[in-house]
Amino acid sequence: MLNHAVTDLISWAVSGAEPRIVQHANLPRTERRGPGAAGPALDASDRRQFFENLRMLADRAASDDDVILLHRQACYLGSLDRTGASASWLSPPRAFPHFHRAEPWTPRWVDARSVATSLARQGDRQPLRDFITHAHGDDRSELAGLNYWAFWVGEIDQQQPDDSYMADSSLRWRGAVLLRHIVDRLDADHAFIDLNVHTLWALLQARPGVAVAEPETASLLVTRSQRLMDTAELSARARGS
């Protein structure tokens, strides 16, 4: 199952965006004979083939609950296409009830979430706002969202064979890594800003002591929250959080 670190490395090859973990590693420069690439890279034809293969995978897995995890991961990776061409094949919100009415958590919940975040990365933020409104209406959904994030950023470090861990209330993780991850992304221009704000609210509700235990992150949180409130780009729900 993909997490943030793995996805960042894939993105490096297909979009040229150097992962933060590499930026902050202060790796020594290695002398090479002759010119060399600064990082992994695919040429234009390989990138096009990569996204075409993702589309094929997404189409094949879309209606099969046994491989729905492949569908959502293909959709999310499709959002890395900087040409915008992948936006046309990402599953439309009308295929998911989660964008139109209150829906409880199921494995299809996280599939819809991946479609919403993918569309947001491609420039359409409304499906993600609709998803937050309709698919985060109960405690189980909030737990699923937090567990998903905790796995994504590495606070849940055990590999998960499927998505059932998201609804597992017995999982234990602190929240400090997730808090820093979200605070670093409290930027009005971030594609997932509405989800970031909602997740921050849910995290502070579930782990009320985490900000106190991380004073440096808490200070940055105050600064960035004040900056966010000065922008008109937030949804009404995110601003209320």
Helix content: 40-55%
- Can you write the helix and strand succession as a string? HHHHHHHHHHHH
Q: Runs with pLDDT <50, length 5+?
A: none
What is the 3D form? Answer: globular
User: What does the radius of gyration come to?
Assistant: 18 Å
Residue-averaged pLDDT: 87
Strand content: under 5%
Instruction: Count every beta strand, where a strand is a DSSP E run of 2 or more residues.
Output: 0
The biggest sheet amounts to:
none
Helix count, DSSP H or I runs of 4 or more residues: 12
Structural class call reads mainly alpha
**Separation, N- and C-terminal Cα atoms:** 31 Å
Oligomer: single chain
Describe this structure in words.
- The protein has twelve helices and no strands.
- The two termini are 31 Å apart.
- α4 (68-78) runs parallel beside α5, α5 packs antiparallel against α6 and α8 packs antiparallel against α9 (193-206).
- The mean pLDDT is 87.
- With 241 residues, the chain is mostly helical.
Describe what is shown at a glance.
54% of the residues lie in helices and 0% in strands. It has 241 residues and is mostly helical.
Keywords:
single chain, 12 helices, globular, 241 residues, mainly alpha, 54% helix
Mind sketching the topology for me?
Blueprint: H1 4-15, H2 20-23, H3 44-61, H4 68-78, H5 107-121, H6 126-135, H7 139-153, H8 176-183, H9 193-206, H10 210-213, H11 215-229, H12 236-240
Helix pairs in contact: 3-4, 4-5, 5-6, 8-9
